[in-house]
User: Fold this.
Amino acid sequence: MATLEAANVERCLTGIDGLDSILNGGIPRGNTTLLTGTCGTGKTSVGLEFIIHGADQGEVGLFIAATETPEKLTGSMIPYDFLTPKMLEDKIEFMHLEDFYKAAGIDLESEIDSKGVKSLIKAIRDEVKKKKAKRLVIDSITSICARLTTEDRIRDFISGLSDALAKVDCTALLVSEVPAGSDIYSPYGVEEAVSDGVVLLGNLERQGDLLRTLQVVKMRGTTHSRAKYIIDLTSAGVLLAPLLKGGE
Amino acid sequence: MATLEAANVERCLTGIDGLDSILNGGIPRGNTTLLTGTCGTGKTSVGLEFIIHGADQGEVGLFIAATETPEKLTGSMIPYDFLTPKMLEDKIEFMHLEDFYKAAGIDLESEIDSKGVKSLIKAIRDEVKKKKAKRLVIDSITSICARLTTEDRIRDFISGLSDALAKVDCTALLVSEVPAGSDIYSPYGVEEAVSDGVVLLGNLERQGDLLRTLQVVKMRGTTHSRAKYIIDLTSAGVLLAPLLKGGE
Amino acid sequence: MATLEAANVERCLTGIDGLDSILNGGIPRGNTTLLTGTCGTGKTSVGLEFIIHGADQGEVGLFIAATETPEKLTGSMIPYDFLTPKMLEDKIEFMHLEDFYKAAGIDLESEIDSKGVKSLIKAIRDEVKKKKAKRLVIDSITSICARLTTEDRIRDFISGLSDALAKVDCTALLVSEVPAGSDIYSPYGVEEAVSDGVVLLGNLERQGDLLRTLQVVKMRGTTHSRAKYIIDLTSAGVLLAPLLKGGE
Amino acid sequence: MATLEAANVERCLTGIDGLDSILNGGIPRGNTTLLTGTCGTGKTSVGLEFIIHGADQGEVGLFIAATETPEKLTGSMIPYDFLTPKMLEDKIEFMHLEDFYKAAGIDLESEIDSKGVKSLIKAIRDEVKKKKAKRLVIDSITSICARLTTEDRIRDFISGLSDALAKVDCTALLVSEVPAGSDIYSPYGVEEAVSDGVVLLGNLERQGDLLRTLQVVKMRGTTHSRAKYIIDLTSAGVLLAPLLKGGE
Amino acid sequence: MATLEAANVERCLTGIDGLDSILNGGIPRGNTTLLTGTCGTGKTSVGLEFIIHGADQGEVGLFIAATETPEKLTGSMIPYDFLTPKMLEDKIEFMHLEDFYKAAGIDLESEIDSKGVKSLIKAIRDEVKKKKAKRLVIDSITSICARLTTEDRIRDFISGLSDALAKVDCTALLVSEVPAGSDIYSPYGVEEAVSDGVVLLGNLERQGDLLRTLQVVKMRGTTHSRAKYIIDLTSAGVLLAPLLKGGE
Amino acid sequence: MATLEAANVERCLTGIDGLDSILNGGIPRGNTTLLTGTCGTGKTSVGLEFIIHGADQGEVGLFIAATETPEKLTGSMIPYDFLTPKMLEDKIEFMHLEDFYKAAGIDLESEIDSKGVKSLIKAIRDEVKKKKAKRLVIDSITSICARLTTEDRIRDFISGLSDALAKVDCTALLVSEVPAGSDIYSPYGVEEAVSDGVVLLGNLERQGDLLRTLQVVKMRGTTHSRAKYIIDLTSAGVLLAPLLKGGE
Assistant:
């Protein structure tokens, strides 16, 4: 029957100060986490900083953008104080999702079938292995999910990718775009169930101001706080502050 | 006409202290209970502990995972104080849902028809009998339900499985994944109606913190409390505390 | 033109103390009433007690279960103080819905057409006549409605059954399963309109506790209270208590 | 161009005391009014009383039931103090909707097309003319609307029927069944727009009690109160009381 | 490139006292305005008064009814103090929408295609030109929109009609029927976007009474108040009163 | 690997005083921003002023209208104090969306396929290059999105257009029409995710008055305030005022 594995899971430091404390030392290494929230809540910024802090710790990071070209992305980044040209050159790779569709032989005009799911996972894993990437961000998986068309394939894609990345010890953030005005965790409702973790970014309206919030809803392999924190996007990176009690 | 059966139903101790009290002595043995809640509410933890406490009482437990590989699952478990390698070896079996699809001759690419429903029930019951399992957790049935496609087949699957397990005296928890932002008990709305019991896990936001809650909504064959409890996932297991009155 | 019938309708005592008072003496005999509510609100318990109290008054009762086998049902009943083996043997009949599908020649794999509606009504009426049943519970009609597929056929089924039962002086409770998180009376929205009465079971959260409630929303042929009552499921049967005013 | 018609429209007294005051003297004769509300709000009782009071004033009334047989309907009526056998015999006609479908040559198994709409209107008008009916109740039109399947045909049916009845000076109440838990006026959302008037029956929960309310939302050809009234169904008929201000 | 047109747009006085003030002098002449609200909020009354006040100022008005026959409409009008038979004879034309369908060669049984959109616009414009109408009311466009079936055609119809009417200096009110229980501006959500203005009629429940309200949500070519006003339908016409502050 | 681009992005001054402060100096040049809100919230006015202020700064602006003809648009503009005929003649171009459909060879009767997406982007970019436009407003993209029919094509259209405009240094506002009664950012829920920025216009009801609000929800490449501001549309242009704290 089953065997008991080592209890002390190795951690991947996000580098975002407060977040690592919330997670009692970082994301369990190899976990695939859904980074979810509506537009403007800071998903891309958190993802970028996760990659940059990895580079600072000597880990190669792969950032796959679905929407923006790599040029536009780096051009529109907040100019972080701690980001050096050398980091970008040596440790950070920006790629476009389309490159992976091509590598997987996926036709850009039609839906992705079960075979395509497997090829796409393989294409991503191959690139991760080739680059020896220890961190991966896909910003976002929502357009991929839309093309998978069935809940089954979405489950297969996320859990298959998650298994593949766990085997090569790569910790991943999958950005999920939630439409404004809803309180769901993901557009298809299944992405959250098959991920190892869910980090929820949100908005909090307070006296006319729209604050950003962060909450770790779920993280397999560690205990963690589930409290809601206020986050601030600054050139010194993402800053977390506890939500003042009784404030709402 | 009908005959009157013994009134004192035998109980299956969940081993979760507070929960057994709520149920006036545990789940009526042979019941199939829906364990339902949104992502991050502790469904997998409650399911695992149900299996582990069974092992501690000498009962074989079968844990069928739909999403994670058995390796990943055991790797990402909270390291319980009371879990010994011997328990895992002798009494706990982790299997993957895919194995049952294969045993039932179900094609992984298409929906499951009425014949498939019967084969799948049979495959699960056969494994339960072979392993002499007295406890079963399926984490989760949501992907199965999605592939059944009609409410009728979902009813047939759950009530058929429930009947089959009752005959071999196996007590089961069927995990159901509910999308965030809804207050339903199950994605298809019928799972709850055909189960013998419903244990609802939820979230309660209190001053910025996101607490986990547990509530026994329904349990056939016993009277029970229907109050909402706060639960805490610790390395000493799931802990229940009454929700302070007037707190909301 | 029309003729005036006797104003004093004969009553069928439910045997549930408070409920008969609410109804000013019981359900008008021959009425078909929808017994509706979400999972765990006590629909099956109220239905069983209606049958058992009938047996106690010497009336034969037929309980048609859609989900559970008769064995499982009697096995998981709350052990009522007033239920004797003799009652069960002489006056109570548990049957499975599937038997009626078979008698009506309805294929278990497809939807039920207009012809099937008529055959199913006939099969139920024939059994009621054969057993000389004065009380009928169908727990539940929701799976039947799902297979009828159109609102028209649901209307035809319920009003046809209702007419047929009225002719043989049989009083019926049709259990309707409503998904959690909604405040509807029936899944298809028409069941309530064609029934002679609607008894609504519900939940009321009060300081963390989940109480059960009962309310007679509609009852043709009698005036009645429409107030909401708290109900308690005990081994002495269903107990009703008025909802304390100002409590919500 | 257009000509100015007489300003003082003749009124049809409903006989329901408060309602005639609300309407400043009754429903403008020839108007077709939607009588709408969820199950149990008293639609049938108001409709019956409208017919009975007409009979009392010497006007023939036609009551078309869609669900119940005329026998069941008269059997389950509240025994009104003012209803005499002679009224029923001479002035009140209960018929079943099915008879009109037959007269119009409408197949009971399929949807009603544009031709069917015209035949059905004609069948109803012919019966109204034949019986010299001055009042008509159809309880309910919801099953008819379901079979019309398009908004266009629903519009055509209601406005066509309304025109036809206006020509023979017949005042009509069309009962519309709204599913519980919604605050709409009609299931298809167009019935209300093409009717000359809308009388809304509703529920008002007050300290655990479920009161019935009545509100005239719209009435062409007269000014009227739009306030909400509490109604009570008694053997002396429908009684209206103003909703106590500040009570909610 | 573009040229600057005269800033002082000519105004069309609605004749409704308060409304002209809200609009700083009336509707900019040639604008096509959506007059929207649920059933019973006074859309037809406002539309009629707009036409009648135009007649009083010597302008021909065309009122196209979709539901009622012209006879029924004039028969069920509130008897306005200021309406003279001469006005009706000389300056006001009531027509039925069906006449325009016929003129446009549109089959009454099927949906309206792009060609039909153009023919219908032409038919309306031709009649407006022929009658030299300076005011137009279509009560309502909702049944037209239903038959257009796509958002694209609804956009094309309203913006095409709006352009055509602007060219002949005709100011139009298009009545839009919104189902009760929603807070939308139009059933298809696009009518409001392509109109030059939106006047929203609504209900306001205050201590059991259902008041009517009016609000100018949008009006191209003028600044205007967007406050909510209480309206009263009287035989002296529509009266506006400011909503008492702090009243809600 | 990636290279670090210049941190100080050049800004495009909107000319709307408060808005440029909120954005810490204007919109990052080359960004494509969604300007979104329900009907009547001032989208067209903000878009026009953005173009006019550009003209005032010597930049050519292209305004593509989907609904109104250029004549109607200029005719119904608020007469701005700072708008001179020379600006309109030299620097501002009003065009109709239909012209671009024609240039792109898109059939006006059918949906737009992937090839059409590319042709439409090219047609817009070609015109922008030809006119040397530095500012673009499309009022609105909602009808385009409706004709794209799939989320995929909407993503491709907006991100493709955004990339093409960035290359020619053109800053764009894409107007998005949201139906009243919803709190979404865009009708299809994806427009917001692929845009570089989102400016949300809204309504705020305060004591019966309907105020307009503006909020920068997201803007790539700059930090910005996310507070909600009250806006006023005047002949001196759009004026912003902070929402008084505690006012709601």
In short: The longest helix of chain F spans residues 114-131. The first strand of chain F starts at residue 11 and ends at 12. The CA atoms of residues 51 and 185 of chain F lie 23 Å apart. Residues 1-7 of chain F have pLDDT under 50 and may be disordered.
